[in-house]
Amino acid sequence: MDVTAIDAFSGSQLLQAEPDASSFPSGGMRTTFEARGYTVWDTTSPMFIQEGPHGTSVLYIPSVFISYNGDALDEKTVLLRSTSQIAKSACELLSLIEPVPVGAQPKTSHVFTTLGTEQEYFLIDRSLYSLRPDLKHTGRTLIGNLPPKHQQMEDHYFGRIPSKVLATMSEAELELFRLGVPVKTRHNEVAPQQFELAPIFEEASLAVDHNLLTMDVLSKVAHKNKLKVLFHEKPFKGVNGSGKHCNWSMSTDRGENLLDPTVKPETNYRFLLVLVAILHAVHQHGALLRTSIASSSNEHRLGAQEAPPVILSCFLGEHLTEVLDSIEEGRPIRNFSVPEIQTIKLGGTALDVKVASLPTISRDLTDRNRTSPFAFTGNKFEFRAVGSKQSPAFPVTILNAAVASALQDVTQALRAQMGEKPYPSDADKVAVIKKFIASTKPIRFEGDGYSDAWIQEAEKRGLPNIKTCPDAFAQLLTPEHSTMLTKLGIFTQSELQARHLILNERYAKDLAAEAATLRTLLASQILPSAFEYRGSLASTVQLLNGIEGEANSPELSALKALTPVVKELQDSIADLDHVLHHLHTLSDDPCEEARYAGEYILGSMNKARVVADKIELLLSDKYYPIPRYSELLWF
Known about the structure:
Family: Belongs to the glutamine synthetase family.
Domain GS catalytic: 75-526
CATH topology of the largest domain: Creatine Kinase, Chain A, domain 2
Pfam families: Gln-synt_C, Gln-synt_C-ter, GSIII_N
Strand content: 5-15%
Oligomer: single chain
Shape: globular
Largest sheet: 9 strands, mixed
Protein name: GS catalytic domain-containing protein
Low-confidence stretches: none
Organism: Podila minutissima
Distance between the termini: 53 Å
CATH architecture of the largest domain: 2-Layer Sandwich
């Protein structure tokens, strides 16, 4: 039997294809009838094959997506631009501080940004998920009260992983290994039904691709195991939200981590110059980093239950703080190398109770700060504020851009300090390091990011406290940020304006969809159930009234408690109708729609939820029409 190919394609078709770009958000860069766009294979990210339906195989080609005019329509194009620019800026600095003989090759010819993305997520029963319209349409529960037991016992993180979850994790890891995704870590998270998965560090653009692939594989495997994975940053009110902690660093082509402080960071001038450049980046463009994490879903998480606050600050820890302070003040560093600081003696205590089987262990020079949005964690920075649902591409792009610009500032300052000398002396390096230590001091914070005192202190330091998404989106177009992004060639001005409009439009549409879903849920399920229960109570009261007279007080009391709340719910539904109608009457200005949605639609939803949650507490399981938190949060 002869076997022939049904179709064939050339190698050039792997490199470039022409999909329809007319239905893709363009932010006004093109009109709807202009349909042509191009995908181009990102050759730094390998192709892969996944199993398709009915035993077929599907070839996936990681690609950038650009318009007919070359504008970036995707997140990968700008990410690759940013990694190229930060490599250029870093190499320029390193070539200045790493002298080489005339005619010899520079010690460092390329710098990579590395990334490790910790992915948090919830897993719930798929059959219960299908009975929650709010979860299905918005990814989060729009109504619902906490069960009597949730995370207040603090017993989930180190608890047993449920067998069906462990099976899902194991199968997902196997699938990811087959696809070349180097998954390493899995564990429970703090909230019930919340878990985490993390890979080994990779080059940043590949790590982003692998993170998105991880989310896809988790969804598919969970479905096979009759579970549903939730990536929304706050699917359940009152318990921990989920983040995507982006552990970011830079590495040379020789495999050297530029953020490794080594044994004596106080004399590791390369490390210190890179460190102060990053602090300078966050100080200058913290508001832009705030933009990169802003979304309708992540706003519910930031500043609540272990998520960092919206004020961008850097945590360095006691040791590095002392190093920088000693340089700024021109004094010797306090000794952090004594044995009792480096180790913990489990085999003996002050009470002389010895456990010989327990060894002496080493401990890090500094503790961690879970309330810091941008924390140094040994040899990398952890950008903890990124949302679990979003792609890491945009936050990492903005971080790369800010650091690339800051590296250029440090290089320029170093050139000015060294004057006519071919290379800077150690004294020149220290002078520049000292200058940036002083200028970036406002961004460094070691305390509790949740405290009211920090909000007041941050205001005194002049740090931006951008509370709403529309205000965060506006930072893309402010001169200090837009000039930096366009000067580096990471965005064009038209691309920035387009992204600003797209972010606002998406925000308004997300909230409108949530409000419409909530309105439908209340009107079609909660309110009829309340009516039914109220009718049952009224019939019981009438029946018992004829038998017992006024002795039917329990049922009558329940009826009297329910009736005003039902009226409140009707008013809440009417208010949702009003704000949704008004949103649709606004002009086609996404910025105006986003501000209205954030102020009025979100407020109306919050009020309606309060009423709906009151009714949940008054209705028995027989009448309450959807699964409660007590069912969703526990298998």
